[in-house]
Each structure stands twice: as structure tokens, then as C-alpha cells.
Design goal:
The model has no long low-confidence stretch (mean pLDDT 93). This protein has one helix at 2-68. The chain is rod-shaped. The longest helix has 67 residues, at 2-68. By secondary structure, the chain is an all-alpha fold.
């Protein structure tokens, strides 16, 4: 009976260890995913602002060309 109890405790210990390792790995993965999502959002904002700037420059260039003509 003592061997059964020892094996049972060993099994629970291993299960808890695997659960803890899995939880930590999931937490790290989710943190990395959130960080990457923030970087993608920032990149998209920069691209949108650059597109707006390019449109303003093109409008200015067209206006200048029209004035010179």
C-alpha cells in the first residue's frame, strides 16, 4: 500500500509540474503575441501617416505646377 501511495503522489507531482511548465510557456507566448500586435499596429499607423504626407506633397506639387503654367 505504501508503494501505491508513493506512486500516486509522484504522479500528481509530475502532473502539477507539467501543468506549471505549460502555463508558463503559454503566458510567455501570449506576452510575445501582444507585443508583436502592438508593433504591427504602430507600423500600420506610420504607413497611414506617410501615405497622408505623400498625398499632401502630390497635391502641393500639382498646385505649384498649375501655378507655374
Amino acid at each position: 500500500m505504501k508503494t501505491f501511495k508513493r506512486n500516486l503522489l509522484l504522479g500528481y507531482g509530475i502532473s502539477l509540474l507539467l501543468l506549471t511548465v505549460s502555463s508558463v510557456a503559454s503566458y510567455v507566448s501570449i506576452r510575445n503575441l501582444l507585443s508583436s500586435a502592438e508593433l504591427v499596429t504602430h507600423t500600420n499607423q506610420v504607413i497611414d501617416e506617410l501615405n497622408t504626407l505623400m498625398l499632401a506633397l502630390k497635391d502641393g506639387e500639382a498646385g505649384q505646377r498649375g501655378y507655374l503654367l
